Structure formats: structure tokens, C-alpha cells
Amino acid sequence: MSKKRRGKKLMFVRDSLNRGQWISMTCLLQSAIPANKRSTLPNAQLTIFRAEEYNATVEFLWAPLLAESNSDNLDVKPGTN
Predict the structure, then answer these.
(1) C-beta separation of 59 from 11 below 8 A
(2) For residue 79, with 0-12 CB atoms within 10 Å meaning exposed, 13-18 middle and 19 or more buried, which class applies?
(3) Fewer CB within 10 Å, N- or C-terminus of the chain?
(4) For 23-44, how does the pLDDT look when each residue is reduced to its tens digit (9 = 90+)?
């Protein structure tokens, strides 16, 4: 990890495509950071890879529905049909 990432958080948010990017990033980091200086905290929605030496994290938040549906009628407010 670069000195620029020291004390920072990098977060991937969304779906399986971003999860693949998160996995690739953490695999690269795992190959460069000794096992005793890194940890992974899995959770149902949030998984955190922590680089202890850099006080930095790379996080993945599962949130598949961040975008609004294209079929939503934006002119009609809910409950006013």
C-alpha cells in the first residue's frame, strides 16, 4: 500500500462485479503484507480487510439496489395516484 493510503479507507459498494474488484484488490494486498500485519473481518453485508501496519482498510459493502428503477414514474408521488 502506498504512503498515500496510510490511515485511509477504500470502499467498494454495490454488487457482485464490485465484489470481484474488492477480492482482486485484497489478493494483491495479501501477497504484499505479512499475515501477522493484516486481517479480514467478514460480515453479511460489510467485509473489511485491514492492513495493520498502514492503519488502512479496504471494505466491501453489499448493496445491490442503489439505483432507482427506470420504470418508476417520477412525476407521481407515492400514495397520490
Answers:
(1) yes
(2) exposed
(3) C
(4) 999 999 999 999 999 999 988 8
